[in-house]
Structure formats: structure tokens, C-alpha cells
Amino acid sequence: GENVEQHPSTLSVQEGDSAVIKCTYSDSASNYFPWYKQELGKRPQLIIDIRSNVGEKKDQRIAVTLNKTAKHFSLHITETQPEDSAVYFCAASIPFGNEKLTFGTGTRLTIIP
Amino acid sequence: KAGVTQTPRYLIKTRGQQVTLSCSPISGHRSVSWYQQTPGQGLQFLFEYFSETQRNKGNFPGRFSGRQFSNSRSEMNVSTLELGDSALYLCASSLAQTGAPSEQYFGPGTRLTVT
Questions:
Q1: Is the peptide bond before A8 cis (omega within 30 degrees of 0)?
Q2: Can you tell me whether residue B74 is helix, strand or coil?
Q3: Do residue B56 and residue A95 have CB atoms under 8 angstroms apart?
Q4: What are the beta bridge partners of residue B76?
Q5: Cβ-defined contact of B56 to A99 (cutoff 8 Å)
Q6: A109, A44 in Cβ contact below 8 A?
């Protein structure tokens, strides 16, 4: 089955700097890659996603890039703010009529004021 | 639209008991997936229901089961509870209108503690 690896497990950045979280997946059939943000005690929230027919997607300060050949995808957060502090999860999904998400192990991002 | 809701939010049970958790998806969403979240194992897929049918199942023992009703609401059941079943149980709903995976939105979760 699909396996998703996520790095780093923890990341601390100065407020205003950029943060990058990287994931790799094992199944080349995966074609949907969402990112979730989970604040302490809250539900995971979908913040951005990308499909395999697109190489990059941006939404304000957040961007995701996908390299299908290398089976890598990354989350980029620019101009980080204290409210960006949370645990971020990447995930991958294989098509063929199911919604199963395989998650990475999470990255705890801390923004230092 | 109202978001995904789950009941109860917190539950304390004793080993050997059984428990039923409920999930109401976003209106119009036809798929409901269940995940177990623990500090050690992260987010793990339990199963997915679509049109009252289980479409996919994760690697959990048969003590974990679920169902979906005609209004898309879903329940999951865990029988013969073990200490290791203590976790946050999250459900997620999605439109699932096409063959491609669709955006999934999570509920607040049910925190299950087994003593």
C-alpha cells in the first residue's frame, strides 16, 4: 500500500521567515495530495491541496509543489506569523473510487516571535 | 453550511466494553471516512463509507466496524475495548461526486479513553 514520509518532524522558524515541509510518497498511482493544519485540541483543517496534473499551487502565503518523477511534494509558507504555529500533515490518495488518505507523520511548526 | 459534527466529544470506557461513535457529514456529502489519531501512530485510516457501502478498509482488527445510513450519517463501533484503543477518532466527509478523490473535511473528533 501507499506510504508517505514527512520531514522534518519539528521545525522552528523566526517570525517573517519561510518554512518548508517535505513529503515523499511510494505509490506512483497517487494523484491527490492535500495538506492539513492541526492546532492543539482542534480538528485537522484542509489548507491547500494539489492534483497530479499540476506542478504548483499557491494561496496567499501558502504554496505546494509536486514533483511526480521524484514522488515528492512540499509545503511552503512565506512570511510566517505566530498563528502559523501548529502541526502540519501531508497526505496522499490513490484514485479508483475511494477517498482513503494516507498521512505523513506530521511536522510541528513553531514560529518564534 | 454546517460543518462535520461528531458525538459524543468525549467518552470514557472500561476494557471489554463496546462503544458507538456518530458522525454527521456536511450536507450533500456522500462519503464518510474514519481515522484514528494517536501520538504514536499518527492519523490512520479505518474505513470509508459511500452510499451505505464500505468502499475501503484499513488495517484494523474486526473489532472495528461501521455503517452508513441513507442520510449519509455514519457510525463506527468498537467492541471488546482494549487499552490501546484510547485515541482521538476523527471522521471526515467529502462530496465524492467523481472518480477522483475530493476534498475531505474533518469533524472535531471523539476522544475515547479506555481504562
A1: yes
A2: strand
A3: no
A4: B21, B66
A5: yes
A6: no
Q: Which amino acid is at A81?
A: Q
% of chain B residues with pLDDT over 90:
87
The minimum CA-CA distance between A48 and chain B, rounded to whole Å, is 10
Kindly report the nearest CA distance between residue B75 and chain A, in angstroms.
17
The DSSP code sequence of chain A is ---EEEE-SEEEEETTS-EEEEEEES-TT--EEEEEEE-TTS--EEEEEEETT-SEEEETTEEEEEETTTTEEEEEE-S--GGG-EEEEEEEB--SS----EE---EEEEEE-
B54-94: per-residue pLDDT in tens?
Answer: 999 999 999 999 999 999 999 999 999 999 999 999 999 99
Helix (H/G/I), strand (E/B), else coil: B83: helix
For the stretch A22-33, pLDDT in tens is: 999 999 999 999
What pLDDT score was predicted for residue B98? 73
